[in-house]
Design goal:
This protein has 397 residues and is mostly helical. It has a domain of 50 residues: lambda repressor-like DNA-binding domains (434 Repressor (Amino-terminal Domain)). The longest helix is centred in the N-terminal third of the chain and has 24 residues.
Protein backbone atom coordinates (compact mmCIF):
# COMPACT_ATOMS: atom_id res chain seq x y z
CA UNK A 1 0.00 0.00 0.00
CA UNK A 2 1.51 3.29 -1.11
CA UNK A 3 0.34 6.89 -1.21
CA UNK A 4 1.80 10.37 -1.66
CA UNK A 5 -0.80 12.05 0.56
CA UNK A 6 -0.41 12.22 4.39
CA UNK A 7 -4.18 12.15 4.92
CA UNK A 8 -4.56 9.04 2.77
CA UNK A 9 -1.60 7.50 4.64
CA UNK A 10 -3.38 7.91 7.98
CA UNK A 11 -6.53 6.39 6.49
CA UNK A 12 -4.50 3.40 5.30
CA UNK A 13 -3.06 2.93 8.79
CA UNK A 14 -6.52 3.09 10.38
CA UNK A 15 -7.94 0.63 7.83
CA UNK A 16 -5.04 -1.76 8.34
CA UNK A 17 -5.20 -1.68 12.14
CA UNK A 18 -8.97 -1.31 12.52
CA UNK A 19 -8.55 1.96 14.43
CA UNK A 20 -10.73 5.04 14.66
CA UNK A 21 -9.23 8.52 14.48
CA UNK A 22 -9.34 8.65 18.29
CA UNK A 23 -7.53 5.29 18.54
CA UNK A 24 -4.84 6.40 16.10
CA UNK A 25 -4.40 9.71 17.92
CA UNK A 26 -3.96 7.84 21.19
CA UNK A 27 -1.36 5.51 19.66
CA UNK A 28 0.57 8.49 18.27
CA UNK A 29 0.31 10.56 21.44
CA UNK A 30 -1.74 13.17 19.58
CA UNK A 31 -5.35 14.33 19.58
CA UNK A 32 -8.21 13.11 17.42
CA UNK A 33 -8.46 16.69 16.15
CA UNK A 34 -4.88 16.55 14.84
CA UNK A 35 -5.58 13.28 12.99
CA UNK A 36 -8.78 14.72 11.53
CA UNK A 37 -7.04 17.89 10.32
CA UNK A 38 -4.39 15.85 8.43
CA UNK A 39 -6.95 13.43 6.98
CA UNK A 40 -9.10 16.28 5.67
CA UNK A 41 -6.12 18.18 4.27
CA UNK A 42 -6.42 21.16 6.63
CA UNK A 43 -2.96 20.49 8.14
CA UNK A 44 0.36 19.61 6.49
CA UNK A 45 2.45 17.90 9.20
CA UNK A 46 5.79 18.28 7.37
CA UNK A 47 7.70 15.31 6.04
CA UNK A 48 10.26 14.93 8.83
CA UNK A 49 7.68 15.14 11.57
CA UNK A 50 5.26 12.86 9.69
CA UNK A 51 7.96 10.21 9.24
CA UNK A 52 8.66 10.29 12.97
CA UNK A 53 4.95 10.10 13.85
CA UNK A 54 4.00 7.14 11.62
CA UNK A 55 7.19 5.35 12.66
CA UNK A 56 5.66 4.99 16.13
CA UNK A 57 3.06 2.57 14.72
CA UNK A 58 5.36 0.63 12.41
CA UNK A 59 4.98 2.56 9.16
CA UNK A 60 7.56 4.54 7.21
CA UNK A 61 7.88 7.37 4.70
CA UNK A 62 9.86 6.47 1.56
CA UNK A 63 11.42 9.05 -0.76
CA UNK A 64 12.03 7.96 -4.38
CA UNK A 65 13.45 9.97 -7.29
CA UNK A 66 11.01 11.19 -9.92
CA UNK A 67 11.81 11.21 -13.62
CA UNK A 68 12.08 15.00 -13.58
CA UNK A 69 14.66 16.19 -11.05
CA UNK A 70 13.20 19.09 -9.04
CA UNK A 71 15.10 22.28 -8.30
CA UNK A 72 17.07 21.88 -5.09
CA UNK A 73 15.42 23.73 -2.22
CA UNK A 74 18.64 25.35 -0.99
CA UNK A 75 19.61 26.61 -4.46
CA UNK A 76 16.11 28.01 -4.91
CA UNK A 77 16.16 29.89 -1.61
CA UNK A 78 19.68 31.23 -2.18
CA UNK A 79 18.52 32.64 -5.53
CA UNK A 80 15.43 34.19 -3.94
CA UNK A 81 17.47 35.73 -1.11
CA UNK A 82 20.02 37.20 -3.52
CA UNK A 83 17.33 38.65 -5.77
CA UNK A 84 15.24 40.02 -2.91
CA UNK A 85 18.11 41.66 -1.05
CA UNK A 86 19.24 43.42 -4.21
CA UNK A 87 15.75 44.74 -4.96
CA UNK A 88 14.60 45.87 -1.50
CA UNK A 89 15.82 49.46 -1.65
CA UNK A 90 14.57 50.08 -5.18
CA UNK A 91 11.21 48.43 -4.62
CA UNK A 92 10.50 50.28 -1.38
CA UNK A 93 11.44 53.63 -2.90
CA UNK A 94 9.41 52.96 -6.02
CA UNK A 95 6.27 51.93 -4.14
CA UNK A 96 6.37 54.75 -1.60
CA UNK A 97 8.26 57.42 -3.55
CA UNK A 98 5.73 60.22 -3.64
CA UNK A 99 5.94 63.94 -2.99
CA UNK A 100 6.10 65.07 0.64
CA UNK A 101 4.31 68.35 -0.12
CA UNK A 102 1.52 69.07 2.37
CA UNK A 103 -2.02 69.08 1.02
CA UNK A 104 -2.36 67.89 -2.57
CA UNK A 105 -2.95 64.13 -2.66
CA UNK A 106 -2.53 63.88 1.13
CA UNK A 107 -5.90 65.62 1.54
CA UNK A 108 -7.59 62.84 -0.48
CA UNK A 109 -8.97 60.01 1.75
CA UNK A 110 -8.67 57.32 -0.95
CA UNK A 111 -5.06 58.24 -1.64
CA UNK A 112 -4.16 58.09 2.07
CA UNK A 113 -5.83 54.68 2.35
CA UNK A 114 -3.83 53.43 -0.64
CA UNK A 115 -0.62 54.57 1.06
CA UNK A 116 -1.63 52.69 4.20
CA UNK A 117 -2.18 49.49 2.21
CA UNK A 118 1.14 49.87 0.38
CA UNK A 119 2.97 50.36 3.66
CA UNK A 120 1.33 47.25 5.12
CA UNK A 121 2.12 45.13 2.05
CA UNK A 122 5.76 46.22 1.89
CA UNK A 123 6.26 45.74 5.63
CA UNK A 124 4.90 42.20 5.48
CA UNK A 125 7.06 41.38 2.48
CA UNK A 126 10.30 43.26 3.21
CA UNK A 127 10.21 44.35 6.86
CA UNK A 128 9.86 47.82 8.34
CA UNK A 129 13.43 49.12 8.08
CA UNK A 130 13.52 49.93 4.32
CA UNK A 131 10.35 52.04 4.43
CA UNK A 132 10.24 53.53 7.96
CA UNK A 133 11.80 56.90 7.11
CA UNK A 134 9.48 57.44 4.16
CA UNK A 135 6.43 56.39 6.17
CA UNK A 136 7.27 58.89 8.93
CA UNK A 137 7.66 61.65 6.31
CA UNK A 138 4.29 60.77 4.79
CA UNK A 139 2.68 60.77 8.25
CA UNK A 140 3.81 64.38 8.75
CA UNK A 141 2.39 65.38 5.36
CA UNK A 142 -0.95 63.75 6.18
CA UNK A 143 -1.07 65.51 9.57
CA UNK A 144 -0.49 68.83 7.84
CA UNK A 145 -3.41 68.15 5.49
CA UNK A 146 -5.89 67.17 8.25
CA UNK A 147 -7.21 70.70 8.94
CA UNK A 148 -8.39 70.84 5.32
CA UNK A 149 -10.20 67.51 5.50
CA UNK A 150 -13.28 66.09 7.14
CA UNK A 151 -14.44 62.83 8.66
CA UNK A 152 -13.32 60.61 5.77
CA UNK A 153 -9.79 61.98 5.82
CA UNK A 154 -9.55 61.48 9.61
CA UNK A 155 -10.65 57.86 9.23
CA UNK A 156 -8.14 57.25 6.40
CA UNK A 157 -5.40 59.00 8.41
CA UNK A 158 -6.20 56.73 11.35
CA UNK A 159 -5.56 53.66 9.21
CA UNK A 160 -2.32 55.14 7.86
CA UNK A 161 -1.14 55.97 11.39
CA UNK A 162 -1.90 52.40 12.46
CA UNK A 163 0.14 50.89 9.64
CA UNK A 164 2.90 53.47 10.17
CA UNK A 165 3.09 52.56 13.87
CA UNK A 166 3.64 48.89 13.12
CA UNK A 167 6.21 49.81 10.48
CA UNK A 168 8.34 52.06 12.69
CA UNK A 169 8.09 49.60 15.60
CA UNK A 170 9.47 46.93 13.31
CA UNK A 171 12.27 49.37 12.47
CA UNK A 172 13.21 49.61 16.16
CA UNK A 173 11.51 52.88 17.20
CA UNK A 174 8.93 52.00 19.88
CA UNK A 175 8.51 55.58 21.14
CA UNK A 176 7.47 56.84 17.69
CA UNK A 177 5.28 53.75 17.21
CA UNK A 178 3.33 54.40 20.42
CA UNK A 179 2.83 58.05 19.44
CA UNK A 180 1.49 57.06 16.02
CA UNK A 181 -0.75 54.42 17.61
CA UNK A 182 -2.21 57.09 19.90
CA UNK A 183 -2.84 59.26 16.84
CA UNK A 184 -4.62 56.35 15.16
CA UNK A 185 -6.97 55.97 18.12
CA UNK A 186 -7.69 59.71 18.42
CA UNK A 187 -8.39 60.11 14.71
CA UNK A 188 -10.73 57.09 14.67
CA UNK A 189 -12.54 58.34 17.79
CA UNK A 190 -13.21 61.76 16.27
CA UNK A 191 -13.98 60.20 12.88
CA UNK A 192 -15.93 58.54 14.35
CA UNK A 193 -15.33 54.94 13.17
CA UNK A 194 -15.73 52.07 15.65
CA UNK A 195 -13.91 49.55 13.45
CA UNK A 196 -10.83 51.80 13.26
CA UNK A 197 -11.09 52.52 16.99
CA UNK A 198 -11.05 48.80 17.76
CA UNK A 199 -8.14 48.29 15.37
CA UNK A 200 -6.19 51.08 17.11
CA UNK A 201 -6.92 49.52 20.52
CA UNK A 202 -5.63 46.19 19.17
CA UNK A 203 -2.46 47.90 17.95
CA UNK A 204 -1.85 49.58 21.33
CA UNK A 205 -2.49 46.28 23.10
CA UNK A 206 0.07 44.57 20.87
CA UNK A 207 2.71 47.29 21.36
CA UNK A 208 2.29 47.35 25.15
CA UNK A 209 2.62 43.56 25.25
CA UNK A 210 5.86 43.78 23.26
CA UNK A 211 7.09 46.45 25.68
CA UNK A 212 6.29 44.31 28.76
CA UNK A 213 3.27 46.28 29.98
CA UNK A 214 0.44 43.69 30.14
CA UNK A 215 -1.88 45.78 32.33
CA UNK A 216 -2.05 48.55 29.73
CA UNK A 217 -2.34 45.94 26.98
CA UNK A 218 -5.32 44.33 28.74
CA UNK A 219 -6.98 47.73 29.16
CA UNK A 220 -6.86 48.47 25.43
CA UNK A 221 -8.01 44.96 24.49
CA UNK A 222 -11.00 45.25 26.81
CA UNK A 223 -11.87 48.74 25.54
CA UNK A 224 -11.74 47.47 21.96
CA UNK A 225 -14.04 44.54 22.75
CA UNK A 226 -16.65 46.93 24.20
CA UNK A 227 -17.14 48.66 20.85
CA UNK A 228 -20.11 47.69 18.63
CA UNK A 229 -20.04 46.64 14.98
CA UNK A 230 -16.45 45.37 14.96
CA UNK A 231 -15.30 42.79 12.40
CA UNK A 232 -14.50 39.20 13.33
CA UNK A 233 -10.82 39.68 12.50
CA UNK A 234 -10.35 42.60 14.90
CA UNK A 235 -12.36 40.87 17.64
CA UNK A 236 -10.20 37.76 17.28
CA UNK A 237 -7.02 39.83 17.59
CA UNK A 238 -8.34 41.66 20.67
CA UNK A 239 -9.24 38.37 22.36
CA UNK A 240 -5.82 36.93 21.53
CA UNK A 241 -4.07 39.98 23.01
CA UNK A 242 -6.26 39.83 26.12
CA UNK A 243 -5.39 36.16 26.56
CA UNK A 244 -1.72 37.01 26.09
CA UNK A 245 -1.94 39.78 28.69
CA UNK A 246 -3.62 37.53 31.26
CA UNK A 247 -0.98 34.87 30.63
CA UNK A 248 1.93 37.29 31.17
CA UNK A 249 0.80 39.49 33.99
CA UNK A 250 1.20 39.14 37.75
CA UNK A 251 -1.47 41.72 38.45
CA UNK A 252 -4.74 40.86 40.23
CA UNK A 253 -7.26 39.11 38.02
CA UNK A 254 -4.81 37.45 35.63
CA UNK A 255 -4.81 33.67 35.53
CA UNK A 256 -4.04 30.67 33.37
CA UNK A 257 -7.73 29.80 33.00
CA UNK A 258 -8.70 33.30 31.83
CA UNK A 259 -5.76 33.38 29.46
CA UNK A 260 -6.76 30.01 27.97
CA UNK A 261 -10.40 31.11 27.70
CA UNK A 262 -9.68 34.13 25.53
CA UNK A 263 -7.15 32.28 23.38
CA UNK A 264 -9.70 29.52 22.71
CA UNK A 265 -12.27 32.16 21.75
CA UNK A 266 -9.81 33.85 19.40
CA UNK A 267 -8.88 30.58 17.69
CA UNK A 268 -12.53 29.63 17.17
CA UNK A 269 -13.46 32.98 15.58
CA UNK A 270 -14.80 32.46 12.06
CA UNK A 271 -14.53 34.36 8.77
CA UNK A 272 -10.94 35.56 9.30
CA UNK A 273 -8.60 36.55 6.50
CA UNK A 274 -5.50 34.35 6.05
CA UNK A 275 -3.21 36.93 7.69
CA UNK A 276 -5.64 37.37 10.61
CA UNK A 277 -5.74 33.59 11.05
CA UNK A 278 -1.95 33.40 10.99
CA UNK A 279 -1.57 36.21 13.52
CA UNK A 280 -4.09 34.66 15.92
CA UNK A 281 -2.38 31.26 15.67
CA UNK A 282 1.03 32.85 16.26
CA UNK A 283 -0.12 34.72 19.39
CA UNK A 284 -1.94 31.59 20.56
CA UNK A 285 1.28 29.61 20.28
CA UNK A 286 3.07 32.02 22.61
CA UNK A 287 0.28 31.95 25.18
CA UNK A 288 -0.17 28.18 25.06
CA UNK A 289 3.54 27.76 25.75
CA UNK A 290 3.29 30.22 28.63
CA UNK A 291 0.54 28.14 30.27
CA UNK A 292 2.39 24.86 29.70
CA UNK A 293 0.44 23.52 26.70
CA UNK A 294 3.51 22.99 24.52
CA UNK A 295 2.06 20.43 22.11
CA UNK A 296 -0.84 22.76 21.31
CA UNK A 297 1.63 25.64 21.07
CA UNK A 298 3.64 23.88 18.36
CA UNK A 299 0.45 23.07 16.46
CA UNK A 300 -0.54 26.75 16.54
CA UNK A 301 2.86 27.85 15.22
CA UNK A 302 2.73 25.21 12.48
CA UNK A 303 -0.73 26.39 11.45
CA UNK A 304 0.50 30.00 11.31
CA UNK A 305 3.46 29.11 9.08
CA UNK A 306 1.30 26.89 6.85
CA UNK A 307 -1.25 29.67 6.33
CA UNK A 308 1.34 32.30 5.35
CA UNK A 309 3.56 30.02 3.23
CA UNK A 310 1.84 30.87 -0.10
CA UNK A 311 1.57 34.58 0.79
CA UNK A 312 4.14 37.43 0.44
CA UNK A 313 4.41 37.58 4.23
CA UNK A 314 7.98 36.67 5.11
CA UNK A 315 7.81 38.78 8.26
CA UNK A 316 4.96 36.70 9.68
CA UNK A 317 6.75 33.46 8.78
CA UNK A 318 10.06 34.53 10.34
CA UNK A 319 8.34 35.69 13.51
CA UNK A 320 6.43 32.43 13.96
CA UNK A 321 9.44 30.24 13.11
CA UNK A 322 11.62 32.10 15.63
CA UNK A 323 8.97 31.83 18.35
CA UNK A 324 8.48 28.13 17.65
CA UNK A 325 12.24 27.51 17.75
CA UNK A 326 12.47 29.28 21.11
CA UNK A 327 9.67 27.12 22.51
CA UNK A 328 11.33 23.96 21.17
CA UNK A 329 14.63 24.91 22.81
CA UNK A 330 12.88 25.68 26.11
CA UNK A 331 11.22 22.24 25.97
CA UNK A 332 14.52 20.56 24.99
CA UNK A 333 12.95 19.26 21.80
CA UNK A 334 16.23 19.63 19.97
CA UNK A 335 15.32 17.82 16.74
CA UNK A 336 12.37 20.12 16.22
CA UNK A 337 14.40 23.17 17.25
CA UNK A 338 17.11 22.38 14.69
CA UNK A 339 14.52 21.92 11.95
CA UNK A 340 12.82 25.23 12.79
CA UNK A 341 16.13 27.09 12.95
CA UNK A 342 17.02 25.73 9.52
CA UNK A 343 13.73 27.01 8.11
CA UNK A 344 14.29 30.36 9.81
CA UNK A 345 17.69 30.65 8.10
CA UNK A 346 15.94 30.57 4.71
CA UNK A 347 13.16 33.06 5.54
CA UNK A 348 14.76 35.71 7.79
CA UNK A 349 17.22 37.12 5.18
CA UNK A 350 14.29 37.99 2.90
CA UNK A 351 13.28 40.93 5.10
CA UNK A 352 14.95 43.82 6.92
CA UNK A 353 13.33 43.97 10.34
CA UNK A 354 14.86 44.97 13.67
CA UNK A 355 12.17 42.94 15.40
CA UNK A 356 13.04 39.78 13.46
CA UNK A 357 16.75 40.47 14.01
CA UNK A 358 16.08 40.54 17.74
CA UNK A 359 14.18 37.27 17.53
CA UNK A 360 17.03 35.61 15.61
CA UNK A 361 19.53 36.89 18.16
CA UNK A 362 17.43 35.39 20.97
CA UNK A 363 17.29 32.02 19.21
CA UNK A 364 21.08 32.03 18.82
CA UNK A 365 21.54 32.88 22.51
CA UNK A 366 19.06 30.23 23.64
CA UNK A 367 20.64 27.54 21.45
CA UNK A 368 24.24 28.27 22.52
CA UNK A 369 24.07 25.78 25.39
CA UNK A 370 23.32 22.98 22.90
CA UNK A 371 26.19 23.75 20.52
CA UNK A 372 27.67 20.26 21.01
CA UNK A 373 24.54 18.67 19.55
CA UNK A 374 25.43 18.22 15.83
CA UNK A 375 22.03 19.17 14.38
CA UNK A 376 21.77 22.27 16.56
CA UNK A 377 25.32 23.30 15.74
CA UNK A 378 24.64 22.95 12.00
CA UNK A 379 21.41 24.94 12.29
CA UNK A 380 23.24 27.67 14.21
CA UNK A 381 25.93 27.87 11.52
CA UNK A 382 23.29 28.23 8.80
CA UNK A 383 21.44 30.90 10.75
CA UNK A 384 24.63 32.87 11.43
CA UNK A 385 25.68 32.60 7.79
CA UNK A 386 22.28 33.84 6.65
CA UNK A 387 22.12 36.74 9.14
CA UNK A 388 25.63 38.27 9.41
CA UNK A 389 24.20 41.63 10.52
CA UNK A 390 22.77 39.98 13.64
CA UNK A 391 26.17 38.48 14.46
CA UNK A 392 27.82 41.90 14.10
CA UNK A 393 25.32 43.48 16.48
CA UNK A 394 25.79 40.68 19.00
CA UNK A 395 29.56 41.19 18.82
CA UNK A 396 29.21 44.93 19.55
CA UNK A 397 27.34 44.38 22.81
Amino acid sequence: METTDPGRALNLIMESEGWSQRNLGSELGLTQGWVSSVVTGRRDPGIKRFASIVGQVGWEVVIRPKRRIPVKRREFHEKVIKTASGAIAGKAAGMLGVSSEAGGPYAEPDYVLSLAQRAADLRDELGGVPIATKVISQSRSISAALPKGGKELRVSASEFSRQAAWTVYDAGRPDVALSLAGDALNLATYGPDTERQAAAHALLSDLYLQEGKPERAAYHAQEGLKLPDVSEGIRAALKAYLGWAFGQSTWAGSSKSRSQKFIDQARSQEQLSPLDQAWVHGVSGLVLHKVGENREAFMSFEDAVRITEPLPAAQYQANDLANAASVALACRDLDRAAELMGMLAYVAPLITSRWVDRKVSSVLSESARWVKVPDINLARERLMLAMPSVIEKRGQR
